[in-house]
UniProtKB/TrEMBL annotation:
One of its GO terms (biological process) is negative regulation of Wnt signaling pathway. Residues 1-15 form the signal peptide. GO terms for cellular component: plasma membrane. It comes from the Eukaryota. Keywords: Glycoprotein, Membrane, Signal, Transmembrane. It holds the Pfam family APCDDC. This is APCDD1 domain-containing protein. It is found in: Membrane. InterPro entries: APCDD1, APCDD1_dom. One of its GO terms (molecular function) is Wnt-protein binding. Residues 19-292, 293-486 form the APCDD1 domain. Its main location: membrane. It is a single-pass membrane protein.
Length: 513
């Protein structure tokens, strides 16, 4: 019986490892076949959120952005009370002009943008939001007159004095409702003066950083189709509210996508078939002023045990690129996390690898992120492997490893209580948040807390993140077959492994019990 159990366990672990490797292989394929083409021409069009997005704060948002090639834009943000985007709170509509400058200093394949809004309006979507906006304006705009907020009524919070309407040839960007009088006094005092806009944090500094790319739709490198979809990445949102007014992004938010029914486009001298649809896009693009009500998601327990890997090359503040792999073991609450850092945004040139481990503790105490659970990562061990000779040469390595550093040679960092140069402290506790969801395609996703945009340490339970990183996908799960595609699902060896597990399990239970 013991022999059969060992065989069963070995076969199961081997299958999970193979699936993790397959998921990583597919992510690498998609990254390395991504084509970046950032210009005003590729920016023009309609860009939509693929799902409910969580921003620091916490804010729950659906975005609907429209750009023209000459730089004219209309940005629509629907804000919600919940992380499912099922209960609308308010809508923000901004119209203006975008000009791009030089390439970004941190991201050479992105552009720096200069945003000049001509009009920003707010629409409360329920009575509670209207009352909250009244209180916010009273607090942030003392001594100034404003019109009382009402449900479904559009309020001007910023207006350029130069013109009342903003017209374009292709789109009708009416800045203000026809019912609002065309007087400078009324515009400036309809719902807060121009001077308090920054304090209200309704800014669009995300347009300071823009990147546009074509990314493969397919998950399997064996496929020969060049079907792609467009992604728009704009700058990240700061972790702390007081930084919003003047923040300069150094990373990106979740990509917006552009739907397409199958047009052929030439990018950098090559023809691509651009085809993409999403589940909520038709509802999101229906009306600027009437937000869609998405279906409320089921609350799932934080079943985090198993192995999880990145779905794509991820970006962190200050231009760091990496992939992650996490393992959680339930018997003794042990975790192992591997972070692989790269030089480039396609994660092809490896710079260094940090593998940390320890124990974790889960709890369901009430947090600002109501959909998440608290998790404390106790960091007890860590190894560092450097693959960049320049990093070894230029960085001071005192109190970071006992031996001289060599390319490709790992060192244990616990002997020097971590590596302060990289922000690793051993022992220490990382106070984080976690959430588990099932995607529309049927595979499990693991969300961990978003890294602080100012790289501040989270060394107190009260300083836990209020937003999430891009999710990891679970390995060794039957539902992940949809992520892997039909080729993996129909693999003879995997069917053999699965059948073997079932046979051994049957024998163990029925013959030896």
């Amino acid at each position: 019986m013991n022999f059969l159990v060992i065989v069963l366990f070995w076969t199961y672990v081997n299958g999970i490892s193979r699936q993790c490797a397959k998921l990583s292989e597919n992510a690498t394929y998609n990254d390395r076949n991504t084509v970046v083409e950032t210009s005003m021409k590729t920016l023009s069009g309609v860009w939509l959120s693929e799902g409910c997005e969580t921003r620091p704060g916490s804010e729950y948002v659906l975005r609907h952005y429209t750009f023209q090639e000459n730089g004219d834009y209309k940005l629509v943000q629907h804000h919600y009370w919940d992380d499912s985007c099922s209960s609308p709170k308010l809508t923000i509509i901004a119209i203006g002009m975008l000009k791009t400058k030089r390439d970004s200093i941190l991201h050479h394949d992105a552009l720096s943008g200069y945003n000049k809004p001509s009009n920003i309006t707010i629409i409360p979507q329920d009575f509670i939001a209207a009352k909250e906006l009244d209180d916010v304006v009273a607090t942030n705009c003392p001594g100034q007159y404003w019109k009382s907020w009402r449900k479904y009524e559009e309020h001007v919070v910023f207006a350029s004095p130069n013109s009342r309407h903003y017209k374009s040839h292709e789109y009708d960007f009416d800045r203000i409702q026809e019912t609002i009088p065309n007087t400078k006094h009324y515009l400036q005092n309809s719902s807060g003066a121009l001077s308090c806009l920054g304090k209200l944090r309704w800014t669009f500094n995300e347009l300071k950083l823009i990147k546009i790319q074509l990314r493969p739709n397919l998950y399997l490198p064996q496929k020969t189709s060049n079907e792609m979809h467009w992604e728009l990445l704009v700058g990240d949102i700061p972790s702390r509210e007081e930084l919003k007014e003047n923040y300069t992004p150094t990373a990106f938010q979740t990509p917006l996508i552009k739907t397409s029914k199958g047009e052929k486009e030439y990018v950098k001298g090559r023809k691509y078939l651009v085809h993409y649809t999403c589940n909520i896009c038709s509802n999101l693009g229906t009306s600027d002023r009437v937000p869609p009500h998405l279906i409320e998601k089921a609350r799932l327990p934080p079943y985090i045990w198993g192995e999880w890997v990145s779905q794509r090359c991820e970006v962190r503040p200050m231009g760091l690129y990496l992939t992650r792999q996490f393992s959680f073991y339930g018997d003794d609450n042990v975790w192992v996390g591997e972070h692989r850092f790269y030089v480039d945004p396609f994660c092809t040139l490896l710079k260094f690898v940090v593998t940390a481990s320890g124990t974790f503790q889960l709890d369901n105490k009430i947090h600002i992120l109501k959909e998440a659970s608290n998790i404390d990562f106790r960091i007890e061990k860590a190894t560092l492997t450097i693959y960049d000779q320049h990093m070894i040469y230029y960085m001071p390595w005192s109190n970071c490893g006992k031996q001289m550093w060599k390319v490709g040679v790992s060192q244990e960092l616990a002997d020097t209580n971590g590596c302060q140069q990289l922000g690793i402290i051993i022992p220490s506790v990382q106070y984080d948040v976690v959430k588990v969801e099932m995607s529309y395609q049927g595979y499990w996703l693991l969300f961990l807390g978003q890294a602080d945009t100012e790289n501040m340490p989270v060394d107190s339970p009260s300083e836990r993140p209020t937003a999430f990183q891009v999710p990891l996908v679970r390995c060794g799960d039957g539902n992940a077959a949809s992520f892997l595609g039909t080729d993996y699902e129909d693999s003879g060896q995997d069917r053999l492994n699965l059948n073997f597990i079932f046979v051994v399990a049957f024998l163990t239970v029925h013959v030896y019990s």
